[in-house]
Hints:
alpha/beta, UDP-N-acetylmuramoyl-L-alanine:D-glutamate ligase, 2 domains, nine-stranded mixed beta sheet, six-stranded parallel beta sheet, 19 strands, 39% helix
Amino acid sequence: MKQLVQSLKQAGPKDVVIIGDLMLDEYLIGSVSRVSPEAPVPVLKERETAYSFGGATNVAVNCRRVGCNVSVIGLLGADDKAGNQLYSMLVEKKICVEGIVKSADRATTCKKRIVAQRQQLLRIDTEETHALSEFERDNLICSIHTVIRPGSLVVISDYAKGSIDRSIIEEVFVRAKLCGSLVIADPKGPDFSKYKGVDYLKPNLKEFSQLVDFFGLSQDDSVIENGRDICEKLSLQGLIVTMGEKGLQLITKEKEIFYQASKREVYDITGAGDTVLAFLAVGLANRFSLDQSLKLATTAASIAVSHHKTYAVGLDDLVDVCVSTEEKICSDWSGLRDTIGWLRKTENKTVVFTNGCFDLLHSGHIYLLREAKKRGDLLVVALNTDDSISRLKGPARPIKTLEERASILAAIDVVDYVVSFDQDTPYKLIDYLKPDVLIKGGDYQVERIVGYDVVTSYGGVVETVKHKDGLSTTILVENVKLCG
Length: 484
């Protein structure tokens, strides 16, 4: 994670265009100490009024805070208080507002929350969701063709407030294709067919359930089974289902990966989906892999929900999040290959690979890992799965499960990534990852080390680290038996 953040800091600004429903969040904040004599309701003694970005503007400000050049396209009321407030806030954040259309036919969407002692007492919504007028549609289409430029990444943030209909999305697709732009959408019903042709779709669980019903699929089927069908029906590159504080589920034609959310105290989930959408856009705009972008988005969302109100997550927030052991453990070979390949390309990192059972960790293992780390920048440790160890060592092994072994290794400072393989040898994994250096502990002849031919074929290095005498898991197990 820290390496991704560092790359974002070093990268030049990327162009992101957010099109969708522009909304203002207003908070009337005060205290309650009595009940009204007029009716059984609390009396709020108002202390202050605060404003924050909502809907598509929350996505925009998240993208802006991490260094993107951000433009917004959407509707505001022609001369209402909420619209003027939101417009000035966008300008203050240096977000391009040339795509905003001010309409006399529509009031600015505003969600006003009454808050006392950090608890919401009431929410009052001002919104108009009627169909676009001819004036609104023509001017939005003009904005689409003016604001979306070659190299832009486009985000559709649809809150079903009237700004996004089929005709608008079709114009986005036309312009995006002309400009070579990716399009990501946060969908709203009832007509989900209008998103056919978008690159990535990001529904939450409620919207996903509505998608399942819309396409006549079974609610009894798994998220993954239904997700595959939805990907096919809408011609998606990928479907990202946000699952609240649990995390994200990615579904593509080739793979399914679950991204568990970082464990942090949750104060307010308002805008968490916007944060995911924004950081997915930021990652892809910076040419991160989809896997890297979603890891970034998951971490950012966990930070956002630990704050009251909507919160724009910054790069310093991400740096402050310590790399957890879970982030080092890679369940997906392709995700790991994307990550190390990208770090090689952007930061010239060298990759060191070693493997083993690591069943009962001892000082000999630590010595091997520290010596391996000295040979390069990133240390990848590959573990035999439990089934693989049983085939090699017998039914009494392993003593510790794969999950336990991976967690222990990930907690070691010199280890950057932990991955597993189910084969008897790591040959396929070595061939897939193509490490720069292959390290094996023991007194092997270098030429007989599994993967030697692969690594040397592209100029890589194969070395051995001699074991310390008397240190092995097998010896430890035998000693334990004798003591017992």
